[in-house]
Amino acid sequence: MSQMSSVPWLTLLIVIPAVGSLLVAVLPGPAEQAKRLAFGVSLVTLAVGIVAATQFDRSSPAQFQLAEQHAWIPQFGVNYALGVDGIALILILMSLVLTPVCLLAAWHDVEDEGDGGRRVKAYYGLLLSLVPFMVGVFSATDVFLFYILFEAMLVPIYFLIGRFGGPRRQYASMKFLLFGLAGGLVMLVAVIALYLQGPGGTDGFLISKLTGLSIDPTTERLLWLGFFVAFAIKAPMVPVHTWLPDAATEATPATATLLVGVLDKVGTFGMIRFCLQLFPEANAWATPVVVVLAVISVIYGALLAIGQTDMMRLIAFTSISHFGFIVLGIFALTNTSTAGAALYMLNHGFATAGLFLFAAMFIKRRGSKRIPDFGGWQRVTPGIAGAFLVAGLSTLALPGLSSFVSEFLVMVGAFGVFPAGTVIACLVIILASMYILLWYKRVMTGPKPEGLSHIKDWSVREKWVAAPLIGFFVVFGLFPKPALDVINPAVDKTLSYVQANPATLAEGSTK
Amino acid sequence: MPTALPSLLSSASTYAAGLATHDGEAHAATGFASYAWLLIAFPLLGTAVLLLGGRRTDRWGPVAATLLSWASFVVGLILFFVMFGQPSEDRAWSVHVYEWVTGGSFTADVNLLVDPLSLAFVLLITFVGSLIHVYSIGYMKHDPDRRRFFAYLNFFVASMLLLVLADNYLALYMGWEGVGLASWLLIGFWNMNPAYATAANKAFFANRVGDFGLSVAMFIMFFHFGSVNFADVNVGVAGLQGANQGFMTAMGLMLLLAACGKSAQFPLQSWLGDAMAGPTPVSALIHAATMVTAGVYLIVRSGTIFEASPTAQLIVAIVGAITLLFGAIVGCAKDDIKKALAASTMSQIGYMMLAAGLGPIGYAFAIFHLITHGFFKAGMFLGSGSVMHAMNDQVDMRRFGGLATVMKITWLTFGAGWLAIIGIPPFAGFWSKDKIIESAFVGEGWRPWVFGLAALIGAGITAFYMTRLFFMTFHGKRRWTEDVHPHESPATMTIPMIVLAIGSAFMGLILGPTGAFSTWLEPVTGAVEEHHPVIPVPVIIAVTLVFVLVGGGLAWMRYLRDDVPLTAPAGNQLTKAARLDLYQDHVNEALLMRPGIHLTRSLVFADGEGIDGAAGGLAAFIGGWAARMRKVQNGFVRSYALTMLAGIVAILGALWVIQ
Q: Fewer beta carbons below 10 Å: N end or C end of chain A?
């Protein structure tokens, strides 16, 4: 089931940034040097990631490639086991691309306060320390290892929000931690109970050993619920979403991007990898409820986004809406909708990064996150306004930009299974144009404000932040084939484990 | 003079023959045709260079954009001659460009379908579009952001071409939204004025309501036919042989919703008047000649779907009839020259929509009117731009008057457009609109009478409001404000107006009575059996002309014989309602906007107080219990042991239940 790799690519992707983040935090020297080191390490990691991706064979019959496996706690059946399928691969690549972009965007988030740059080093070290977790959770093929990483990654984010965030950072970081821990504890119980259901032995936690078990229906449903609750909080879905707007608005933009754009994907990724693959029967049982929650999230998030005056909260609510789409696509269980959901995870990461990071550029200049404090900024910072518009248009799923492809695939695939829910979700086409363009209008249009002549348009550094994101929106909007080519086989493979709903699958593949 | 309607059409073949080409017998393009993607590539290149090139391209950018648009026209012209040399059954070429979306079993590529219908649009878009590029060089000469303006114009041309050339609904949708974006960017081009920014958003939101329809239509297509390609859908519909009308109707109505959003048809018409906030060349190109007619294209292109659902088809005709009267009534009351023209556009597209809703007998005339309208309405918008140029950007016709002598070219070219739209023979509008009125009188039962009379009355009102507009602007006393010194516009502006005026004058005569246009479209729209209107054709023509003369005469009495007051008289209830666009904004505000605002506000409140409050309450509850539990931590080993025992029992109990 796994295709072992002779070079431990995935381990390299974990070790390089892990060592890098330690060095960034402890090495003496000026803060500027630490930032450069962190940025360099993130670029090296990205380069290694690209080389690793070239080793990926999309026609391979194995579910996991670039696989590694070493016994870790044999007494409990725990292994250090890594491997990726197409979905995990694109999510890891997304993490590796967004990290240097975020580090570059974060350059002046934290200033040297005469403490020898310790605060700056801690910030950059913590940001870089997220990379090993991102690579780890997406590539863990051992359920226990996944759980450990799933929980442990709360820690750096907790500190990133709690130490470097806005005025209500203590509240926001504690709320984030409590929601995360609550989900994690429920999942821990399910993880252990799942092990007891499996064959046991020294590799009893491997996903491959736990796939296709025959479990008593009640038990399977409880186990499914244990995993799902944790993922639904992480994703997040209505009604367990309230931690996200607070976290997003209090965190620095770079933290918010990596949290909402990448780490929250563990929730929806986990639904595909665990809920679908390990508990197909329970999944079919729960699907109606999940789809209703997903559609509620889609509409509810969009409506709340329209009503926000804090831009960072607004972005958080757009994400809740988009996570709803991803969940809808996953649980419709057609090869089209699930492929759309997987692609959506990638596209949402970039679109959110664009919104957070570009909005941060004019928020920083104005010193306020409140929409009413702006107006006429298209004439103040035309370049940033243009970049922000492109990110916004991608978020509202304009055809030709990246998010459209995934949103359409989710809906066109889900319609055959849940026509009413899909049509309701489709109303977001209208609502999304409102939350983006009303926002644009209030901030960017109107007469040029007085007394802002000292404010300059974007710097070279900021242009370099924007270039990869804009490039992604356009290229993957017009030519999503590279991503879809690796996603499609992975989706087919995953859905082949879901035998619970053969009628649905047949419907989705009518041609 | 046209005689019987069917004389223009070959009556030998039936509509079934038309269906055969609907079934997608397009063959792979060879030779020059395989370069059809250049049509889109040229203007797209212009957009990229102007937007990425920045200020460096300020000096030569506008000219480069204009040349690229003309290059696209040349490609279109060559394609036309190549196609003209082919027998009519070989006039559908498919051009594979690249694989776009493949997700699971869904596939949609960027492929082009070059056939007589799409090519007719290509020529209209690139020719009128290029003329308007030329005009804009003069019109936007002093605007500091003109580089951006030309980039958007080029982007519009590229998107519009994709819209009409795509061989599947998803690629069409990309063009469809591209033109919507171009429209948004250009309506809001001067968005330092907040009202203009609002107008841009209003247009986009109304369009997105339509896009919802187009999306759902595609969902239904994929579910039932497994594809969103025109050819596959046509085969799928034919395979049903009339069964399953329910979802065909749903699909048709969703497509109609899309068309209503894009083409400003009732009930999604309210954005078009406000869209006049954009620079006038934009109004001419996007909001008169091309983009707003895309809805008509969509209906005609989806002909097989509407054939299979008479209900949906009937509703198309009803929407068209309502809108043509709605727009005409509003047009009578507007004093803003551009808003009067906008209302007229809405009304004229209503005519096209009505024709498209009549089925195969109307398709060719819908498109024919679309093309002639593209010429004369674009010409009149450019003329109004020329007038505004002369009058310091004023738009109030009560402040115009007597301009005929100061700007002769504008007066003459506008006059050609005026005669064309009210349908005076031999000007273009006569040939196209008259055919629609005749077709509307075809049928059984109440339909020919309702649709025919609506079209007839509409023609009378059109004559009234257009004559009113023409006289108020160019004739009568000079009611100018003191600071204006009108003058004729420069050659870059007048030459496009002259070219469009020539088209407005003669193209109907060339393409109409000869049947050239209908024959050209026949491979797509199908040939039609002979149909007889419920009233003889010569009578229809005569009555129409009487209506037109009466409408024009009334306008002459009120706006030329009598003086035009500087402020509008109070007017009767209908006039008041028409000035307010028949309360369209009031209705939208009461039904959608205010409830929507209340909903979002109360949800924001509920999310903070309700859902998050519940989570916070839970936290407080736990906190309270934690304080109480702290007392349990009393240091007595025996109480710890007791607790552990209770815990073990609980776990064992749980395991026992799970087993």
A: C
